[in-house]
Amino acid sequence: MTQSGAPAKNAIPVTQTLEAQDYRHQRMSHELYQHALIGPVFYILGYVLVVIVGGFYREGSWCLVFPIVAFALLWWLRFRHRPLEKGASLSDYRSWYCHQWALILMGALIWGLISGAVAYLERKPESAVLVSLITTIAMSAAASQTFAMHPMQSRVCILFFLLPSIMVFALPALQLRSISITLAIYSAYLMANLSKCSKEYAQQLEVEIELISSRAELARMSMTDGLTGLQNRLSYEQVWPRAWHGAARKKEALALMMFDLDHFKAINDQHGHMIGDACLRHFGQVLHSFARRDSDFVARIGGEEFIMLLPATTVEAAQMIAEKIRQNLASTPCFFGQIEVRMTVSVGVGTVDWDADFEPQSSFSRIDHACYLAKNAGRNCVVTA
Question: What is the DSSP string of 198-245?
Fold first, then answer.
């Protein structure tokens, strides 16, 4: 006989880890999706401005239309590639990230090539070159900030933005190596800044996850009986009406069992409260072992009073389970060191009568009265409501 609560299992930390992982990917994928949608809009605005300032539209309408159509198509592809639903697998997220980053890098490369082409065609730092250069710098800076959740891919994105212009400005014929060197230094700065942003993003995400986990743990603790590890009365008061009304809509069977440990005050008086607490934990373990479905609900609602809620269970099946629990408790004493304490329990069991019970309290009172009758009938027995 252990003194730990029955439901205390290693599944809780694993579940919390999985929930944290899912939250992390949900947050990262949604941010990546939202930020990626903005890019093509600025590509189009920047390109139109460069074309107008440089007068490239005089060369033909295709000069203006083709890149705009390409950026609009890129926006549509990004828009259609929506984030995954909550609970997706790690492999699904990896596939989604690869697809999304392919679309992001494609846009960065197209703009980088356009910026390099403008520099090559103009061959001097005139208005069109300055506009494309400023726009490229702004976009690369934005990439280092908004895509910090994936630093390696963000570095590639920055290179796609800046490298074509750096290479073009470095050409001997253009004699603009000072601009090329300046851009190279700036790209190195962005890489360093990206590392800082990435660490800050990761720290912020971890703080959020810890905060959410703490709130979830506090909520779980408020619904849990600290002694037995079972659900408590507050949890029962929320679950029972919800289960009752849910079964009422479909007129499904819904069984409830009331348990009252016999002569528990005498156990406390004879052995002390520490052994009394051990007895409560022991009975909690017995009950928990019979709650074999996810829908089964067990709670401690008072000092030595417990309930078990069994959805989709007939009264005959509930009677059998109640009798097995009674027999199990009677045949398995609670051990506390060298002290052995034998216990019995009185049980009231019943199902909701949809013709007579008009609210959850009606069903509860009727089955609670059956437990009272079991106590008056000599204890250590099961009485059906």
Answer: HHHHHHHHHHHHHHHHHHHHHHHHHTB-TTTSSB-HHHHHHHHHHHHH
- Residues linked to residue 310 through DSSP beta bridges, in sequence order: 255
Do 106 and 74 contact (CB within 8 A), yes or no? yes
Cα 383 from Cα 367, distance rounded (Å) = 9
| 364: region left, alpha or beta (phi > 0 left; psi from -120 to 50 alpha) | alpha
Closest residue by Cα to residue 254 from 306, 309, 325, 297: 309
Place of tokens 């944290």: 20
- To the question of pTM greater than 0.70 for the whole model, the response is no
Nearest to 40 by CA among 7, 73, 88, 13: 73
User: For the chain, where are the E strands, in sequence order?
Assistant: 254-261, 297-300, 305-311, 334-336, 339-341, 345-351, 382-384
Is 304 an annotated catalytic residue?
A: yes
Amino acid identity at 323: E
Find where tokens 């309290």 sit: 361
Walk me through the domains of the chain, giving residue ranges and CATH numbers.
11-217 (no CATH), 233-384 (3.30.70.270)
Beta strands 382-384; 345-351: pairing state: parallel
- Contact (CB, 8 A) for 311 and 295: yes
**What confidence tens digit (pLDDT) does each residue in 72-115 have?**
999 999 999 999 988 888 899 999 999 999 999 999 999 999 99
- The C-alpha atoms of residue 381 and residue 315 are separated, in whole angstroms, by 16
How crowded is residue 180: how many other Cβ atoms within 10 Å of its Cβ? 18
Angle at 19 between CA 22 and CA 298, to 5 degrees: 150
Sign (positive or negative) of CA dihedral 229, 230, 234, 238:
positive
**Structure token digits, residue 311:** 């959805």
The owner of tokens 């409260």 is 273
Question: What are the tokens at 50?
Answer: 């460069």
Vertex 105: Cα angle to 99 and 108 (nearest 5):
150
Task: Tell me the pLDDT tens digit for each residue of 258-314.
Answer: 999 999 999 988 888 899 999 999 999 999 999 888 889 999 998 899 999 999 999
Active-site residue among 304, 316, 323, 340? 304
Cβ-based neighbours of 38, under 8 Å, separated by 6 or more = none
Cβ within 8 Å of residue 297, ≥6 positions away? 231, 236, 239, 243, 291, 307, 308, 309
DSSP category for residue 89: -
